[in-house]
Design the sequence.
């Protein structure tokens, strides 16, 4: 999950207006529906004590939202605002679980995480003998992610067996190999910078296989190939779109399963090292304060998700008890939900997060974490 998208709202003090709204699709009365939804959200915020400037900013943002295309298009929106300004305006994949507007000390970011959980970014690399084009695919569609061009001569072999032609063909093979190496290096750079979690190679089988083999081992593990599509104009197809969707879904499914396996190994009876997994709000809060959370596990509707914790303006300022936070230096703590406070801390400290939708697979209480390291007392 791309928690980096939450950076604009992580360390900014509140209180916050958080609004989740369904976006009406293109219909004759879509504009009117947007206005009514925007007015309703602003009214709910005002009733909860939000200042007029923030209410007006939210109303303006929601009134201008439109959904393009048919019923499969994006149809939800999350808006986070404070001090008269919309700080983050984020489209959602599909309709939100429920539409609501709330005014609270922390932004209500857990519903955003639930909606974003399946939005695995896939870098598609369209390969041929001369180079490659890159495109980043997500629930927001596809966007150009760059191009790399290698040598353009010699790239075509001849069919003769003359010794001089064999020399030329060797040069062709060398050109192909060099271009594949340049494509692999560029793919590694783009993958690291664009936030992708999985990569798909499209194009001629020989070229994409050579590129695949030249990738570093860690990237090869999340790279797949498809027989559909290519670099030539007009080569896009519904089959390629299906392959992209399957690769994205498979990665997210496997990633969640891997996190849960590691969590059970650490947290269960007889686990390999119980010091590297945590469950229960007190243990999670302590780990968050010490930046020990590597991957936060959240289950929608879990019993611990809405448990009250105490927070200050900083992402590291959270505690189970009011007095504890005051002891740590925050003189005016506020009550907040445990899931939002922990997710804010995870985002601030570069941690990952996964959403487990099956309560039977989830940690007790619906919240858990894989830890970066244990405390010294846990090893004693």
Sequence:
């Amino acid at each position: 999950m791309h928690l980096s998208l939450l950076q604009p709202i992580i360390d900014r003090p509140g209180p916050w207006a958080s609004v989740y709204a369904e976006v009406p699709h293109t219909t004759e009365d879509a504009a009117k529906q947007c206005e009514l939804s925007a007015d309703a959200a602003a009214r709910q915020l005002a009733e909860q004590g939000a200042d007029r400037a923030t209410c007006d900013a939210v109303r303006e943002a929601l009134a201008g939202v439109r959904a393009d295309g048919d019923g499969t298009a994006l149809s939800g929106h999350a808006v986070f605002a404070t001090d008269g300004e919309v700080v983050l305006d984020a489209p959602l994949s599909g309709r939100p679980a429920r539409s609501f507007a709330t005014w609270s000390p922390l932004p209500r970011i857990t519903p955003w995480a639930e909606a974003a959980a399946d939005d695995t970014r896939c870098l598609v690399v369209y390969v041929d003998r001369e180079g490659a084009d890159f495109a980043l695919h997500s629930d927001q569609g596809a966007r150009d992610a760059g191009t790399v061009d290698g040598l353009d001569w010699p790239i075509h072999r001849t069919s003769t067996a003359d010794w001089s032609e064999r020399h030329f063909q060797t040069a062709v093979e060398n050109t192909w190999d060099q271009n594949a190496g340049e494509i692999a290096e560029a793919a590694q750079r783009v993958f690291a910078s664009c936030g992708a979690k999985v990569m798909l190679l499209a194009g001629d089988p020989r070229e994409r296989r050579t590129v695949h083999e030249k990738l570093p081992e860690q990237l090869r593990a999340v790279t797949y190939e498809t027989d559909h599509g290519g670099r030539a104009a007009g080569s896009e197809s519904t089959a390629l779109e299906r392959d992209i969707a399957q690769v994205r879904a498979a990665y997210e499914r496997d990633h969640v399963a891997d996190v849960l396996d590691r969590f059970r190994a650490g947290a269960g009876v007889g686990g390999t090292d119980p010091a590297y997994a945590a469950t229960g709000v007190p243990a999670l809060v302590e780990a968050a304060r010490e930046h020990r959370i590597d991957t936060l596990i959240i289950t929608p509707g879990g019993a611990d998700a809405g448990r009250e914790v105490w927070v200050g303006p900083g992402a590291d300022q959270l505690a189970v008890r009011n007095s504890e936070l005051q002891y740590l230096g925050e003189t005016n703590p506020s009550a907040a939900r445990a899931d939002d406070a922990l997710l804010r801390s995870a985002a601030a400290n570069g941690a990952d997060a996964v959403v487990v939708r099956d309560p039977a697979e989830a940690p007790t209480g619906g919240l858990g974490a894989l830890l970066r390291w244990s405390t010294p007392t846990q090893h004693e």
